[in-house]
Amino acid sequence: MSAKTKVAILISGRGSNMRTLIQAAKQEDYPAEIIGVFSNRADAAGLEFAQSENIQTAVISQKDFDSRESFCEALDAQLEAWGAELLAHAGYMRIHADGFAQKWTGKMLNIHPSLLPSFKGLHPQQQALDAGVKIAGATVHEVTPELDAGPPVLQAAVPVLDSDNAESLSARILKVEHQIYPLALKQFIEKRTNGDSETADQTNLIWPN
Ligand code: GRF
Fold first, then answer.
1. SS3 (DSSP) at 140
2. Which of 3, 58, 71, 157 could form a disulfide with 137 if both were Cys (CB 3.0 to 4.6 A apart)?
3. Contact (Cβ atoms closer than 8 angstroms) between residue 21 and residue 31
């Protein structure tokens, strides 16, 4: 197969979606290579897993910078030093400066635990419960300068049960997040490489449980 696309993952915390991407990228025929994991928090639990997989990590805190722009310049320098071609956001909790977002638009994915465009921003699972919807889910989407507004790449739906609270619904959604993110990254890379017509596995997925 052709050379693998160099992907950097951006996290701020637990990193369970990061893990699924790292695991997927171990497959010989997976089109991405995870070349680094970046966190804006030194205490992000996901860093330890990345290191145990011999993936280079970097931590830069926004607290050491006096503006969003200067922090994003340091982030950009790190990603360029790694030779990143695509960025996969996985629980990364910082909004990018406009210049950074514009530079990387078309080369960034994010996963969000709602069926976008519903329930953007923080606590989307609680937003879904508050709205009383009966179907919730997850979306892998392209990142653009506007928060949670880039085109969806892949979505998965789950039921909302009457007995749900934010924790139980989040857990059900997280399960499908772990299924769609590796698939979405693969599809996104294949589309970039081959164009629409040759994209393999173009599937939209609904899990009933
Ligand atoms: C996930 O629910 C993801 O959709 C959201 O933040 C959470 C991160 O979880 N953006 P993890 O760090 O991947 O475990």
1. strand
2. 157
3. no
Q: Are 149 and 142 in contact (CB under 8 A)?
A: no
Average pLDDT value for the chain: 94
What confidence tens digit (pLDDT) does each residue in 73-85 have?
A: 999 999 999 999 9
* Residues in CB range of 189: below 8 A, 6 or more apart: 5, 31, 32, 86
Q: From the centroid of its chain, how far is CA 45? A: 16
List the structure tokens of 2. 């052709």
Pocket of ligand 1 (CB under 6 A): 11, 13-18, 90-91, 111-113, 174, 177
Helices 166-194 and 124-131: crossing angle in degrees, nearest 10, is 120
- CATH number among 3.40.50.170, 3.30.2290.10, 3.90.190.10, 3.30.470.30, domain 1-104: 3.40.50.170
CATH code that applies to domain 110-209: 3.40.50.170
